[in-house]
Amino acid sequence: MLFVCLYAQDKTKTVLHDKLENKKIVESVLDDEFGDDDIIEFVQTKQVKQEDFIINGSISYTQSYNYAHSAPLNNISNDFRGWSGSKISTNVNFEKNINKNYKIKSTLKVFKELIYDLKSDEYQTVPKGYDQDIYLNELYMQGGLNDKIDIKVGRQIVVWGKSDNIRITDTLNPIDNTTPGMVDIKDLRLGTTMTKFDYFINSLTLSGIILHENRFSKLPKYGSDFANNNKIKAQSNSVSKPSNTLENSGIAFSLSGNFQGQDLAIYYSNKYVDNTMYRSNMLGMAYNKVMNSFLLKSEIAYFDNYDDDTIGSRVDMLIGAEYNGISDGSISLEVANKNNDAQYAIRFTQSYINQILDFTVLYLGFGNKQDGLIRTWIDYDYSDNISFNFGVIDYLYENINVFKMVENNDRLFGNMTYSF
């Protein structure tokens, strides 16, 4: 027994001695061949090379089920009862570093809607672009001219304003509004071709923008369950937009600052108003302030009648508050006067199971009565790469005609996303 123990000790010493000798050899080689600066530079260079080209994105499958529609009145109308969506989509983000100052970024979006094939007997009309599409939502080059001036050229998204639910000063980018209320604004913005300069002065940022592209918001088209009457059909056939010429280019400026516990931004733009053939000057301001557990929000925007005397000037405004004093949750209220109509947004979010499951309820109200929608959903992060989304949306009609057309679009929806 003693012999075994002594042998084991000798064996252990031998192994440890060999490891120490190997370590000394490696250290000796490194000391002889590379200095400390060389080693650090080598590691840093390797890390930079690994990040020269980045690809990430997601693949999603989404289904929806309409439960409030009645049978169509005739055999030439689409039957929107039951399953109303079965979409496969992907967003792929590319980033390529040109050098230490400049990089190129892009976002490719692709989708295929299978419901028109699965229910071909029930869809007499397929809206153009609803069955499939592929487009670059963003493609731009970004870099620094010097330590105070940055430039970004190409199709990009520029967010103005502070509200998460109602757009007041956020006017530079159109949105995909083909399924109103189903998706938050942050996921709806469409890129627009611009040249943007940012000048940094201490805590202030002065931005100047030239808008080269007149891209309009996507609205529901005739044949979808959000636009299925003859008036919409006539409007769909007559939609036009200004050409992308130098004369039709827009301009925009912003001055924003981040101060202790508060943000302030001033905006100006001269551009074509979304989905119209006339231009307007917009002068706006947005302000945020943190007070204890509250985040106070406000926005105001003045629009003049730049081109068309039949369109009067107007002032849109918003005030809101978000309370974050709830453990793993928040509740917010936003009230706005937009296009001379009242709008409301109430949002409640609560996280559970160490913040891997989020429960959210959103109410959007329009007008002085009860027109609007209520969307309730759950987001569940199954893993770092896989997430699920389940919910229900209910459209409310009392007085506004557009909600009369969609009041039966109440639906269940679900989504599975793989991120890479």
Q: Helix and strand layout, with pairings?
A:
Layout: H1 2-33, H2 36-50, E1 53-66, E2 82-97, E3 102-113, H3 115-118, E4 132-144, E5 149-156, E6 192-201, E7 204-211, H4 230-238, E8 250-259, E9 262-272, E10 279-291, E11 294-303, E12 314-323, E13 329-338, E14 341-352, E15 357-366, E16 371-381, E17 386-396, H5 401-406, E18 411-419
Antiparallel strand pairs: 1-2, 1-18, 2-3, 3-4, 4-5, 5-6, 6-7, 7-8, 8-9, 9-10, 10-11, 11-12, 12-13, 13-14, 14-15, 15-16, 16-17, 17-18
Written account of the structure:
The chain has 420 residues and is of the alpha+beta class. It has 2 domains: 1-50; 51-419, Beta Barrel (Porin). Helices cover 16% and strands 47% of the residues. The chain contains 5 helices and 18 strands. The chain has helices spanning 2-33, 36-50, 115-118, 230-238, 401-406, and strands spanning 53-66, 82-97, 102-113, 132-144, 149-156, 192-201, 204-211, 250-259, 262-272, 279-291, 294-303, 314-323, 329-338, 341-352, 357-366, 371-381, 386-396, 411-419. It has an 18-stranded antiparallel β-barrel. It is globular. The N and C termini lie far apart (57 Å). 21% of the residues are buried. The model is unreliable at 1-48 (pLDDT under 50).
